[in-house]
Amino acid sequence: MVVATNLGFPYVGAKRELKKLVESYWSGKTTEAELRQGVEGIQANHWKLQQAQGLEHIPSGDYTLWDRVLDTAHQFGAIPTRYQNIANPLDQYFAMGRGLQKAATETTAKVDVPAMEMKKWFDTNYHFTVPEFEVDQAFTLQNPRAVEQFKTAKALGIHTRPVIVGPVSFLKLGKPVKSGEQFDTLSLLPKVLPLYVELLKQLAEAGAEWVQIDEPVLIFDLDAETKLAFEKAYKTLKASTNLKLLVAAYFGRVENNIYPVKDHVDGLHLDFVRAPEELEKVLPLIGENQILSLGLVDGRNIWINNLEQSIQLAEKAVAALGKERVFVGPSCSLAHSPFSTEFETKIQQANPELFSWLSFSVQKTKEIVVIAKALNEGRDAVKAELAANAAAIESRRTSPQTTNKEVRERVAQIPASAWKRASAFPIRREAQVKKLNLPLYPTTTIGSFPQTKEIRVARQKHNKGELSDADYDAFIKSQMKEVVEFQEKVGLDVLVHGEPERNDMVEHFGHLLYGYDFTQNGWVVSYGSRCVKPPVIFGDVSRRGPMTIDEIKYAQSLTSKPMKGMLTGPVTMMKWAFVRDDIPAKDLCAQVGLALRDEVVDLEAAGIPCIQVDEPAIREGLPIRRADWDAYLEWSVASFRLSTSGISDETQIHTHMCYSDFNDIFDAIVALDADVITIENSKSDEKLLKIFETKQYTNEIGPGLYDIHSPRVPSVEEMKKRFADMLKYIPDELLWANPDCGLKTRQWPETEAALVNLVEVAKYFRSLKAQQA
């Protein structure tokens, strides 16, 4: 019979219970034993829920306290030297993810270690921790969580399918630990494979039958060496165990990458949401004793599945392979989807039609079970479910909520002149230098300042009606005033208003645009314990009215220094939402671009000299396969230019990108034609800067001086060294000093200390330059 299965579940919990547990542990309010007990409770609830839904293969090993790639590095002993003096394994693990800074005591030495680098997880908004490897890396197997979680579930009477990160993806996603060192991390495969064999042995001894091995890099453009590594790895693993091995690839098409693994596994899971066209190509390649697991339910988005379409696709597999050799499941782990729509009472009451279109993780497991039941017992067995689903699908297709004629006509009539600035950068820069009169190496921040408990409480009270509009507005203004005064005291050159009125850089603007709606509990993990609640784009997008003018005008009135208007760019507004999938992405992005263009024009008219339009999502939205890049970059870059081109030369446009492989899209970054770009740099070992040795970037740029995702405060000397490294690649007149990203998640003491150091560094190098002159 067709098996209903899952690849992973939202480990953060129904209401972010895991986030609260680990943050309580970090603050010293919760012991390690209490943390582990709490995690086991979350796991048990999730396993039981999936079992009650009717899933037959329930994952274990997918729960993590920070990140599954970090779990893999830690369990195999790939622990960089800087963390090895941290005795407690759990504290060592968290230090690798978020850094650790502790003063010396009578009994303990000082600890000051930065976090490991983070990168976007393929084209999602999730971040993973990049493993670091030595040329002579030694691996050891210690406390594998897949074994631990399998045993825990087994003790509850639930037989799960353990999930592990595969050896090739683990090595391929890593990097050399030493800056500038060049070696192929896949050369370590012979060293790590015996540990994987031992891991499979432990799982077999614990009683596992199937093991899911996630190898998402199978969707990359792979070279011959990587394909050979896959073949060697799975020949070895298959020969070493009687366990059934299911290799899972997701987020795109595998194409010819299937060949190195197909003969050495018991099953393959592929993403047929992203690549439904691959099914007919793959079916003839499945061996007579192999399973094909169909990723039919979108694990990345929140729309209901078209059950009839999924069943029809699955029927092709059943016809070719038989029911006994087909699994059905989500396209990828449901960890990228919110927990359950049962908490969305506001949408259900205010917009029941929209609510009928939504499906979160719990509902997606039901969809998987319905598809499997239809395949096993026929459509009549799920007649009611299919009828309700078809009605909701048709409702979404025809609803007036999804279409705005005026918006679509405006997009269709965009003039050619609207897609770029009127003058080239050198002309604009001359006008901006005259107007802004900034010093050499100007200092600024990326936008947000700490969102304190006081701010969060005031927002909650205002949302509940416990704080009047007038009182809330006065409170927000007081917070902006404090931030402006702080920046002037520290000595920053281009100021921001701190964004105290914004809960999230996308959600805030979504409330001010037509076509967006908002969940109460639609949380997904971004990195570590950091969760975001993306808005839902369900219809055509346009501006309701001015969005930021009053706040920025007020902030500018408090200072004679230039103030930046702060906006979120069109690609990020789209990519960091649960985006509609019923119109082309480029058309939706142009709609958002026009709405932002109206705001940029209004900010300039209000006297704001600098406007930052952040686009951290451009790189993460890049298609996996390079063959698809050009089309995406053409419309995404054009949408940014559309939003920023309606102003005069003297108004300075900034943009920001964080945790991106900047080098991958360098030409697109140039094409954005922002006057100033700020980028993540502090954990990248100069690799983002090295491209300036071979390619020319003539606009202004601020590579980040320190990592804001860690609570540690880098010293002046540390920042001086990093700034000196920047000057190797970037001309003096183009270089800015700024943090890596916004400061929203930080505390005030560390924020003040870090920015004081940053300004001191800029002043030091200005003085040095003056002496040289």
TrEMBL record:
Q: What class of enzyme is it?
A: transferase
Q: Which domain of life is it from?
A: Eukaryota
Q: Where does Zn(2+) 1 bind?
A: 656, 680, 741
Where, by residue number, does L-homocysteine bind? 446-448, 614
Please state every residue range assigned to the domain named Cobalamin-independent methionine synthase MetE N-terminal.
4-317
**Active site (catalytic residues):** 709
Give the E.C. number(s). Answer: 2.1.1.14
Q: Which Gene3D superfamilies match?
A: 3.20.20.210
What cofactor is needed?
Zn(2+)
* PANTHER family, alphabetized: 5-METHYLTETRAHYDROPTEROYLTRIGLUTAMATE--HOMOCYSTEINE METHYLTRANSFERASE (PTHR30519)
The record describes the protein's role as: Catalyzes the transfer of a methyl group from 5-methyltetrahydrofolate to homocysteine resulting in methionine formation.
Q: What is this protein called?
A: 5-methyltetrahydropteroyltriglutamate--homocysteine S-methyltransferase
